[in-house]
Amino acid sequence: MNYYKTGQFAKLANVSERTIRYYDKIGLLKPSFVMENGYRQYSDLDLLKLQKILSLKHLGFSIEEIFPMVMDNTDLKESFDLQIDLIEDKMSHLQSLKDALKRASQAPDLSWNMILSLVQLSNEETNIIEQYKNAKNLNDRIRLHEKYSTNKQGWFNWLFEKIDFSKVNRLLEIGCGNGKLWQENKIDLRNREIFLSDISEGMVEEVRNKLGSDFNCIVVNVEKIPFKDAYFDTIIANHVLFYLNDLNQGLKEIDRVLKPNGVFYCSTYGKEHMKEINEIVQNFDSRINLSNHSLYNIFGLENGEEILKHYFSNVERMDYQDCLEITESKPLIDYIMSCHGNQNEILGPRLNEFKEYIEFILNKNDKIVVTKQAGLFIGHKG
């Protein structure tokens, strides 16, 4: 193992000493050793970590987003595979842009449609990173539940079991995410049309690649569903409704495209869901808010039935019995950093300190028990 002073380390990496000192100051890249005389010593492992930081920064990630991605830098293959995938996506996009520019330069008449296509293509580069973030955050949240849930049936298996497929000819799933509901649960698709939709193009592409041509995978905004009236007999919205900009407009659209006697399956959380995780982060730093909105206030187990009764003649509720028993710090931290609040900004510079805090709680109690409060509403259209 080789060690380098700050100046040597910066020169070796072809960055300024100021950059190295800044990363040290904010806690993103601390030296392996600080000698008694104050000199900092960086190692070959620090060089690998710096390489990942610079690569992610070049790809478009913010410093706050990079913190959790380099916290555990021991799996080099996973680190390189991540960078390769993102670079390949970016190269593919740039090649598409290059080809489009060539076609435009050779066209005898440059149409406004062609210019519009170029503008859209030029703007899509930022979507590569956004789509990666969305997919990673969703996977981190699912992974925590899969690993530590005490109910071994699993949420997706339970939800799938509640759907009455004997009445399904045309089904629309709204906000299908990564298609987890359909990956392990198989149904007979003969004489059935299944549409899996999400507002994220990246998610839809991922589902299309995973599930092949058996399903119709499409980009859909719930508030403007591109199907004619009474087209579906079944619609599913798994933990989606509380994200809508206009819940009433979304429900009007769902009602419009659902047939008479059709069935709407929608799941949500209650106010007690994951409350211990909120308590942990609040006790560490009271400024942290894991969600910009209390999702259960928008559409939750407590108010969901009342909201749905405006659109469905009969609404029944089913609760899913479960909790988490977490025994490791990293999956919990990954989950926390995947949330929709301000945690990246506040926790990023203190991530090692936060990890020690979580591990102190785990060593003291052997595990962290977390309440899960989720359930399903089934709305029957009269």
Automatic annotation (TrEMBL):
What does the record list as GO biological process?
Answer: methylation
Ranges in a coiled coil: 84-141
Q: Is Isomerase given among the entry's keywords?
A: no
Query: What are the protein's UniProt keywords?
Result: Coiled coil, DNA-binding, Methyltransferase, Transferase
Recall the GO molecular function terms of this protein's record: DNA binding; DNA-binding transcription factor activity; S-adenosylmethionine-dependent methyltransferase activity
Q: Which InterPro entries match?
A: DNA-bd_dom_put_sf, MerR-type_HTH_dom, MerR_fam, Methyltransf_11, SAM-dependent_MTases_sf
Bilayer-crossing regions: none
**Domain HTH merR-type per the UniProt entry, residue ranges:** 3-72
- At the top level, the lineage of the source is Bacteria
Record CDD domains: AdoMet_MTases, HTH_TipAL-Mta
User: What is the protein name for this chain?
Assistant: Methyltransferase domain protein
Source organism of the structure: Holdemanella biformis DSM 3989
